[in-house]
Amino acid sequence: xxxxxxxxxxxxxSLATSGGDPFTRADLEGAITVLVFYxxxxxxxxxxxxxxxxxxxxxxxERGASLxxxxxxxxxxxxxxxxxxxxxxxxxxxxxxxxxxxRAFGVLHPGGFPQRALVLIGPDAxxxxxxxxxxxxxxxxxxxxxxxxxxxER
Amino acid sequence: xxxxxxxxxxxxxxxxxxxxxxxxxxxxxxYGDYECPFCAALELRxxxxxxxxxxxxxxxxxxxxxAFPAACAAEAAGRQGAFWEMHDALFADQGRLEDPHLWAxxxxxxxxxxxxxxxxxxxxxxxxxxxxxxxGVRAGVPTTPTLFHxxxxxxxxxxxxxxxxxxxxxx
Lengths: 154, 171
Hints:
The complex is a heterodimer. Chain A is an alpha/beta fold. Chain A has one domain: 3-Layer(aba) Sandwich (Glutaredoxin), CATH 3.40.30. Chain A is built from 5 helices and 7 strands. Chain A has helices at 49-55, 57-62, 75-85, 100-104, 143-153; strands spanning 14-16, 22-24, 32-37, 65-71, 90-93, 117-121, 127-132. In chain A, the strands form 2 sheets. Chain A has a 5-stranded mixed β-sheet. In chain A, strands 1-2 form a two-stranded antiparallel ribbon. In chain A, a hairpin with a 5-residue loop joins strand 6 and strand 7 (127-132). Chain A is globular. The longest helix of chain B has 16 residues, at 123-138. Chain B starts with 17 loop residues before the first strand and ends with a helix. Chain B has one domain: Glutaredoxin. In chain B, strands 1-3-2-4-5 form a 5-stranded mixed β-sheet. Classes of the chains: A alpha/beta, B alpha+beta. The interface between A and B is medium-sized, with 29 and 30 residues.
């Protein structure tokens, strides 16, 4: 199943925040949300995707968009990863039932981890744009997020 | 902040760029940072090829906290005509990028230290590096190093095939 397409309502889902609280479809309402699905915490790339997006967080916020990193790692692993990278991006864990949210968004890799994918969701909880990297090793540039936001503002 | 970050073509090599390599050779644009080991490796390879290299800064602070100050040091050295000397000195020893190491390099290169110190903290220098970074984001630079040649983007570690193509450009 490919990543959930534009104009589709976001599926029902439940992720865990760093504090262990649920983050569900209802939390999407009233704000622009970008979910950044990434394969694994601590996976080795020279300059990580999350570090890059962290640099443009202020610009995204200016456009009213909140960014979340999503992976199947446990909350503690995600927090350690976040600290290691020195990034501010909130992490959401798809640990239990493992990969359920990734599956609902159509980004679960057969290997049990998220494909590298981006999903931009409008304040009405409808998907406005999505992107799946051709392979998990491909890093989508931050420009794609701004293109999508520009499209959304039209 | 402010300003657009949506997609735009990579800016052609211009007078604001730091460029070196054989006169008249084909140009490549490299977005890199001084704390990135793959960038250092790429530098060495490109030095052996018949290409002109334009280097632009792409410091991502999360993974490489010393990349931004190192870029400032290179630009500050550039104000004393020693950009590439500092550039090479930074890549040559990436384990030593703290302030005292930057001063030691500036001293070794015979720079005016007081001026170097003031310049590397100059807001114009920081703005210049940020402008490089943001233009890189618009051009779709996702990581370092990213190399542009003939309108094509090569991100991350380069395939040998790309080096081979670059090696044969002048032939």
